[in-house]
Design brief:
The complex is a heterotrimer of chains A (772), B (204) and C (222).
Chain A lengths: L1 E2 L6 E2 L17 E3 L6 E3 L15 H4 L38 H4 L28 H4 L9 H7 L2 H12 L4 H4 L5 H4 L12 H5 L4 H7 L1 H4 L3 H6 L4 H7 L8 H5 L5 H4 L11 H6 L4 H7 L42 E2 L1 H6 L39 H5 L5 H4 L12 E2 L5 E2 L5 H7 L11 H4 L14 H7 L37 H15 L17 H22 L14 H11 L6 E7 L5 H18 L2 E6 L2 H10 L13 E2 L4 H10 L5 E6 L2 H13 L5 E5 L1 H6 L9 E6 H12 L8 H31 L6
Parallel strand pairs in A: 8-9, 8-11, 9-10, 11-12, 12-13
Antiparallel strand pairs in A: 1-2, 3-4, 6-7
Chain B lengths: L1 H24 L3 H36 L3 H25 L4 H36 L2 H18 L4 H12 L1 H25 L10
Helix pairs in contact in B: 1-2, 2-3, 3-4, 5-6, 6-7
Chain C lengths: L2 H19 L7 H35 L5 H17 L12 H33 L7 H21 L12 H47 L5
Helix pairs in contact in C: 1-2, 1-6, 2-3, 3-4, 5-6
The chains are: A alpha/beta (772), B mainly alpha (204), C mainly alpha (222).
Amino acid sequence: MIRCPKCGALNQDSSRFCNSCGAPLQRTQIRCPVCKTLNPAGNVFCDKCHTRLIPADAMLPRQTESQPSPEPGESVRQISLPVRSDLGKTGPLTGFPDWLEGLTDETPLPPTESEPAANDFQAEPVELPDWLLGILPQETASSGEEASQLPDWLGGLAAPESEVTPSAPAEEGPLPNWLSGLAAPESEVTPSAPAEEGPLPDWLSGLAAPESEVTPSAPAEEGPLPDWLSGLAAPEPEAAPSAPAEEGPLPDWLGGLAAPESEVTPSAPAEEGPLPDWLSGIVTPSGAASAGTAAFIPEAPLPTGPAQAPPAEEAGGGAFAETPGAVPDWLLSLAPQDLPSEPTQGAFLIPEEETEEAEVPDLTPLPEPRKPTTDELARANVPEWLRSLRPEGSFGEATGVGDKGTVFVGAADLEATLGELEGELARAEIPEWLQELRPTGAPRPEGMTLEQFISQATETEGGPLSGMKGLLQPEAMVDIPPDYTPVVRYELPAAVLERARLWQTLLEQPRSAQRKMARRRVRPGMGEQLARWLVALVLLVVGIWPLLGYPVPVNVPLRNPSGLQGFVNTLEGLQPGARVLVAVEYGPAEAPEMAFMTEPLLTHLAARGAAVDWVSTLPEGVGLINNLRKDPAWDAGWQTPGYLPGATTGIASYVSLHQEYDVLIVLAARSDHLRWWIEQNTVGPRWPVLVGVSNAVGSLMIPYLEIENLKGVLIGVQDGTRYLAQRSGGSLAQYPMQRRQLNALVGLQWVTMVLLVGGMLWTLMTRKKGTG
Amino acid sequence: MKLLKRWGVTFFGILTAVLILLGILMPVTPLKEIRLILLQWAMVIAIFAFFLAFLHLIRVNLARLKQFKKYGVPGLLTVFSALLTLILVFIQGPQGTYSQLLLNAVLIPGEAALMGLTAVTLLLAGIRIARVRPAHEVILFTGVAALMLVGMIPILPVLGTLASWVQKVPAMAGLRGLVLGVALGTLLAGLRFLFGFDRPQSEE
Amino acid sequence: MPVSLDLVAGILGTVFTVLLLSYLFGDTVLYRWTLAILVGVGAGYALALALRYLVYTWILPMLDAQTGLELRLYYAIPIILGALLLFKGFPRLSPAGNLSMAILLGSGVAVAFSGALLGTIIPQVDATGSGLSLRAGVGQVFNGVLVLLGTIIALLGFSPRPEPQVGQARLWQVWLQRFSRYLLIIGLAVAFAGALTSSLMMLVSSLAFLLEKLFSILAIGL
């Protein structure tokens, strides 16, 4: 677990950011994206499936101007290829690895302004092999000392360098064709031109002088590309022969790479010193490589590349055709027995039997490389893990020595193959820097061959190199001392401690402990208050106006309600002395509204001579009943009103005990009470029911107002006034106050409607998007 | 003993319910009488429940007297008026002078005024719905409410016809669904009590 | 009622009405006091009539010497059970009232159960089917079909069921929920209009009461 340095929260090892506060975390482990295995932070490849954990571009060390270049002593065992970013541009050669960066002349070139960082490759200092050590800037007087440290084949580079002046290139021998064009292709280039452009490496310095001797037409004809590149596109024999002859002396390691025999003076190599080892084999393909020359020739035969072009019989036909110099063994071994007569484009030509005369190999530009064929790919030394991925029927397993000098090697039969090839292949030698990496186990016993020693080693398990023996063990990028013991100190932040204390306090409190809760009285805002005042004012004015008797715009017509006729007809059908049960289910609040229908009902019942029993499940209803029974004429034969406690239980009890009523009249302003009466009447006696309800209950209890035994309904003030008018001869002249109240109610309804719709529209327009 | 303690009371409750239901479904002689007796006993117990609620009201308002500055006077007024009314009305009955005075002078105008206040509150609440509900629902709600307001006591006959149709068809369908849903919920609650899943009497 | 009492009642009623209606313009101390008096009077009035019923209908007959033992027992049992119920007001003695509560709840559940089943569900289903009758005419049948469909849709939307996950709801489920919601909205909008009308009527009656009393006090004809 990783503790966040900012907030102290614990996070998973593979977390990159804190789950609590989002701060970046220093990763101690990396999770493989393929197999999800946790790997140490320094791993480049996954330990389990060998998937690359760190992208290649992230691995490229970036070096800015502010960062000092790493010390030469630091060793990085990475091998990466340089990227050429500014091909063809004049100016300083930037973006090259260190071992190439040293190939600058004494005078440093002016730095260019724009340096694309993405293309820059500035590798960390690499421990250079011997053969490259000499290629360093000869800036100081110690160049001589450095020159003394150079190998033989590079030794010649130092001496002539000290003598090199801006005009030095003019004194050097002729350059091969493919190097002749490295200087600026412009015809106006003078021998002094290289000096103006900055110091060139020795092996390039000789290329500057001959520029003036080069026929201006040749480069000009071929465009902006240097000659050595232009030669890659179309090797022209006519340009090549003259150039090397006219060019200055070559460095030692290039001495052997001079023009073909017809062009190179026999003395050139002698003047320039002995050839480097790796090139010595080019001159003596029979394998007489001097000791130490084949610095990096492997012991195992190299895979064959594209079809090998024969040494160019024609001048400049190939790079190493008819090499005048010695050809290293490893190159010779790659040479096929029967080579095609025609050189193929882009082939890396293996020199054939050289002649003594050809001391300088033909360094004509290589033709354009061609794509390898299927067979050629099949002959490549494919490791076992890759071979296993080969689809069936593609290349097939081929082992043994090919008849053209190619070798088919499988991991399984390496030993046998090695034995067969013992006499045929040149011994490859592991370079010293690679030998240093050899595991320090038991040294190889004397008398034991390398192959035998390797065969004794354990096979590597897992990964792309599984099954191979004698491999170097991967080392962690980060060197952790064996006795390292991480010491973790936990320091809880104050906020966490406080929270823990609070939890403890809360948990320790008894369950029944009363906690004081802060209560804040919410006061309405000013806008709400104003709206309330405005609405209240409007309603009061509109309500009071008709009540004062002032004229109203429209006299409300008394529409004939649909339920009134049934109500009236049922009452009209009562015989004198009929038993009527009236349930008063409204309170003092609804009394004024219900008065519109109760008063005419009572007069009607009295007129029919019905015997009325009054009941109420509300205690206040009993008092209201007494209020209604003010007229003694109504009171004849009426029983004392009864109070039914227990709500629905009381109703159920009453209707069960009393079954003798002819009509049940429910006057309700409470929806539940109406429902109870209708339900218990339906369950029990099933009396004919007349209902008088307020507007609120009438709107809510619509489903109950269409049951089978419901004979009549009066809803609200409008039906009550109509009933009242009908009982009083068809008009409300006798009841002016009721008329005014009706007008006031209608006016208030219209105003309310306008306020409701207007307020809704205003709120919809002004509310924030996304609410609701 | 523990079983009796836990399930004894519930057994009586379920027994009461079952006997009453049997009396409704099979109104034969013993069951019908048992049902009536149980219903009347329940009415009496309900009065005591009402009395308990009254005592709780008194106790709460007396407890508020501790914060006399904030709740003292209203609490005192509530207790005093409740006890005075109880005594007066209990003695005189509903037809008594003071009973009628209290009813006509205090209860009817007071409660009617409170109901009148709800008009403003309802209107403002209807406008405030537009803040929180989706627009199409708000428009539908307000449109129907507005139509019913002007259609209940219509000045124009067409409004009355339209309001009547809305009341009889779509409103009827919606409210009938609501009523059926409430009834089904009541059935479910009753079944839960009958099977002992809910025991509200023992606060479990 | 004596005139003086009538006047007193009028004045008292007017004052109460004015003080309560003053809430329209703000929450005042007088409003809260008036409300407290109203609550007290209402609670006392209701309990007084309920206790009066209890005493006159159950207690006095039980104490009557002429009452037989069985009848006395019949009167006494619910009174004892009710008295036990009063112990519910004391937390420590609360279990004593469990039996009374159980009987009260049992009777309420049974009545509600039977009422819901026999008094609501069956009649409502019957009424829905009656709407499809051809007796009232083709137009009524059309309305009846609409009511039937609407009832089913409203009930389906009202009843609880698992909500489909986002992105997985089918089109018909979405539209079914929408229609049921719309039907419920229409029904509740009608109920809202009715409640608003009732409250407006209360306001009108209160204003009418005020004006009537004011003018009668001021001896001005209305």
